[in-house]
Amino acid sequence: MGSARMVAMVATGLLALSACSTPTATSTAAGADTLVVATAGEPDTLNPVLNYGVDGGSLIFDGLVARDARNQLVPALARELPTVSADGRTVTAKLRDGVVFHDGSPLTAQDVVFTYRAVLDPKVDSTLRSDLDMLASVTAPDPSTVIFTLRYAYAPFLQRLALGIVPAKALAGQDVNKAAFNRRPVGTGPYRVTSWTPGDRLVLAANERYWGGRPANSGVVVAFVPDDNVRAQRTRAGEFDVAELAPKLVSGFDGRAGYQVRRVPTADYRGVMLPMGGPVTGDPAVRTALNAAVDRSAMVAGVLGGAGEPAFGPIPPTSEFAEPSIVGTPAADPAAATAALDAAGWKPGPDGVRVRDGRQAAFSLMYPATDSLRKELALAVTADARKVGIRITPEGLTWDAITPRLGTDALVMGFGTPYDSDFVSFKLFTSTFAGQGFFNPGSYRSPVVDQALRDARANAEPAARRAAYATFQKQLATDLPWVFLTYLQHTYVVRDGVSGVTPRVEPHEHDVANSLWWNIHTWTRTS
């Protein structure tokens, strides 16, 4: 059976099921050129105000700006890149003419104002509010002009304008947290939502009136398959045009007829978050020893199948702000690890586990159970730690089980962005966010880091920002609130005959939005 016919049957079948389970759904996305993609993660909402696709590539919405294949800012709903005043505190955007939402209503400056004010509204459960702490007001002096007034100069503010714009009339006067819009949104993007079946799929149809030109295909089906092995099995069965797979699983498609493997560079790192208040994880000697004991080169070769590189900090080597001195030894250094433990009074016990003052050097290491990559990293860290007398108990759990233990137990975490370094690092490592869920869950506090990150975000001059980020990275390497392990390449399987695929450096968040299919509206199937 030809690949195009197979995918069309899969897409049509999915859409038929969607129509049965959701009576109001339509099958307008069905067609031989409908593309089916598979990812592990499923969003909680499709509302940008509530953190959906905030950095662009959402398929459903557009921001004032977007990012091109090099992650450079380009105008989107703004007709040109917004202008910034000399003092950095006033940003002016002029809207593109003739843009309409999926329901045909025109985009106006009031929609932009509503979107940003909704994020700032304390009654709205938006995790983005802290990202816009610098925003004092947003106003529309006329239907095509938006003015952002900042409390303080914030160097990367234009990058915050990739946030998708929602129509004011669809949400005004409603409880945004519970609005039906969150599951059946209306945007200006290249695709409109026809159905969302939780735990299964999101069905999108081409937006015939898209301001950037009608998409080159008639629609997209996003299949949600959280289990890595199941996703690989379904990919082998021919269900998907594109699927993200773990590096070791994707290697099984190298050389396989009918498929191409894409290994995409990222700023996405994995590491072990160590709670600073723990009797073992909070001990500087234990953190130092663990940092020296892990064999990053073996993790890259084995766990990642070569699809990555060792990590020693949260700013990737490709960033202009990476500090070159923050480079450790990719291979394990057990001598340095044992020396740190010996000096701190952690002595080997009868079972090989080190002990100090009657307490063993032992702790639990959590990871999400369905994530095969984090599981293998957890097991690798466990084995390396055992060699120097630290006993780690790996635990695969649901996110619901992980969340209440964030402040007390170590966790294999993932973060990272190729955009501005402020975006992740400020929330993850300043004391302002200590203990706030997945932001700085280990309650790391350092006045040096706090000041450096404040300086980096406030100064637009590149040399000053580089100096501030150098201070930040050096202090982090001294305190070791995390043991950074690897930077990943995101690995995908693409069916032959799909054209238009354009990889770009990806962030950690890359499920429906910001994945390999960030520009899927330009893709076609040629066979």
From TrEMBL:
A single GO molecular function term of this UniProt record: peptide transmembrane transporter activity
Pfam families recorded: SBP_bac_5
Signal peptide: 1-32
Any one of the GO BP annotations: peptide transport
Alphabetical keyword list: Signal, Transport
GO cellular component: ATP-binding cassette (ABC) transporter complex; periplasmic space
Domain Solute-binding protein family: 72-433
PANTHER family: OLIGOPEPTIDE-BINDING PROTEIN APPA (PTHR30290:SF9), PERIPLASMIC BINDING COMPONENT OF ABC TRANSPORTER (PTHR30290)
Family note: Belongs to the bacterial solute-binding protein 5 family.
Protein name, UniProt field: Peptide/nickel transport system substrate-binding protein
Organism: Micromonospora sagamiensis
Source organism phylogeny: Bacteria, Bacillati, Actinomycetota, Actinomycetes, Micromonosporales
